Amino acid sequence: MMSPMKRKADMAMSPQKNKKAKITVPEYHLAPSIQDESGEIIWPARKTQIEGAREIIKECAQAGKTTLILPDKDADGLSSGAILHHTLTTLGLPSSLISTYFPPKGSSIYDEDTSAAITTICPSYIFVLDQGSRKIPPLTTEPHTCLVIDHHFASEGGFPDGADYVTAHDCPPVATSALLTYHICLPLHPDLDDKISWLCALGTHGDLGSTIKWQPPFPDMASTFKQHPKKSINDAVALVNAPRRSAAYNVQDAWESVINASSPASITTNTKLKQASSEVRQETERCTHTPPKFSADGTIALLTISSAAQIHPVIATRWSGHLKSAKLEIVMCANEGYLPDLVNFSCRVAKCARARDGAEKVDIIQKLEGIVEGNTELRGRLGESFARGHKEASGGIVGRKEWEELKALMGIGEVEKKKQEERERREKEKEKKGVQKNTLANYFSTGSKNASASTKT
After folding, report:
1. 3-class DSSP state for residue 167?
2. Strands 330-335 vs 386-389: parallel, antiparallel or unpaired
3. Angle at which helices 251-259 and 271-287 pack, to 10 degrees?
4. Tell me: the pLDDT tens digits for 48-77?
5. What are phi and psi of 148, to 5 degrees?
6. Apex 367 CA angle, 299 and 294, nearest 5
7. What does the alpha-carbon distance between residue 84 and residue 126 come to, in Å, rounded to a whole number?
């Protein structure tokens, strides 16, 4: 029997397994900021843009003319829209002069149908919030003043012709649209703090998650969270995001809930939002176990689902925190059932790749554009809805034919195909060799027969 001392010695001498290094994702608020000539931090956007936006908002409130707010459909967009709405009414603009418009499912504010709807409303002032931006003709041919407030990536001059804009994209850590709108509006009236501070938190948690640290350069929101606990804000985020993800796409329900709420707690009791949230949870659970396939170079993992609900961003986000490999950069979820004849896809940076910096830093938009680089004909057919959003969270809407071509360029499934071919090759080799004939049973059986024969002779 081995003595305890011997066992301890053997255990001490046995090699220990190397522990995998823990992936440390840098805190969002610690992203290096840019500075002006005097060394002052430029945040959340350039000062000239912020001051220009404030002047337009004050001018709009004083003009007393028809105003159109075009907020995006998620918690960040709806919160920024509500912040602006409360600001304009607090500054004296009658709410009866303010309209909002949400494009139907699968459409955007840059479509012809939206242009027609805007022309019908005939607004003197148009505010575009959290919609991303493109270089396009004016949103309407009628005389108007247009202000874009955004934080998505936009190419040089990528805004509607004649529009003023303020963008947070180039001023890290990139503020959400709600946070940017809050920063613009807060100084315009002393009564705004209680009305819009919790909306700022709602939109920011909606885009950046509930673990975001409210530390400089982010504003101090301690008093806001004392009055409105983070749990109630996070619960409200999930409910506000539910209608735009549901198959029915009742974004108006979410907007009415946010604009009429005096606190996040009042949102959490909304029956319509709860029903939409239940549907989204069930669909997410149904589709989330889809096995991924990988690109030929191993940098992209693709999950393909089919759902009338907009759950592909949720599934991409969820899997991005679980999949790990040395090569993996992007987790992509493609939804082939959201819109007829189209494929909607969302991309997220894999958690295992988020800490990469410098030349290795993952830029999804650049990666997607790089896949079709040199194939100008396909890039043209992919359209303006390809590779939109953020460098860390992008996606697109493309035709089915174009999607299959894009998958072929990525080499999706080639790794799995090669493994399957290798398995089949090995199985065929086994079949060719057949069962081994020189077994012990055969040996003794043969020996027994020989002995019996010799006895007879």
Report:
1. strand
2. unpaired
3. 130
4. 999 999 999 999 999 999 999 999 999 999
5. -105, 125
6. 25
7. 12
User: Which tokens is 24 given?
Assistant: 């440390």
**pTM of this structure:** 0.86
Identify residue 73 by its one-letter amino acid code: K
- Backbone torsions φ then ψ of 274, nearest 5 degrees: -65, -40
d(CA 398, CA 406) in angstroms, rounded, equals 10
Non-local CB neighbours of 11 within 8 Å, separated by 6+ positions = none
In this structure, what token pair is assigned to residue 293?
């396939």
pLDDT-derived band at 386, boundaries 50, 70, 90: very high
Look up tokens 């009791």; give the residue: 269
Rg (the chain; Cα; Å): 29
Residue 397 φ/ψ, nearest 5 degrees? -130, 120
CA 416 to chain centre: 27
Element (H, E) at 204: helix 192-208
- Tell me the per-residue pLDDT of 416-449, one tens digit each, with 9 for 90 and over: 777 777 777 778 777 777 655 555 555 555 555 5
The first and second tokens of residue 46, run together, are 């350039």
Instruction: Mention every residue, 6+ apart, whose C-beta is less than 8 A from residue 132.
Output: 150, 152, 153, 154, 388, 389
Residues 182 and 192: their CA atoms lie apart, in Å, by 9
Contact 333, 267 (CB under 8 A): no
Q: What percent of the chain shows pLDDT beyond 90?
A: 81
How high is the pLDDT of residue 430? Answer: 79
Give CA–CA dist 412/295, Å, rounded: 4
Are 56 and 145 in contact, with CB atoms under 8 Å apart? yes
Instruction: For residue 399, report the phi and psi dihedrals to the nearest 5 degrees.
Output: -70, 160
CA–CA gap between residue 23 and residue 25 (Å, rounded)? 6
Among residues 165, 114, 119, which one has the least CA distance to residue 140? 119
Residue 90: CB partners within 8 Å, gap ≥ 6? 188, 189, 191, 192, 195
Q: Say how far apart CA 79 and CA 179 lie, in whole Å.
A: 9
Residue 284 token pair? 């997410």
Instruction: Give, in degrees to the nearest 5, the angle at Cα 147 between 143 and 148.
Output: 130
Distance CA 75, CA 242 (A): 9
3-state secondary structure 29-45: HHCCCCECCCCCECCCC
Q: How confident is the model at residue 457 (pLDDT cuts 50, 70, 90)?
A: very low
Task: Find out whether 130 and 73 touch, Cβ atoms under 8 Å.
Answer: no
CA distances from residue 173 to 46, 220, 306, 355 in whole angstroms, order as listed = 13, 15, 35, 15
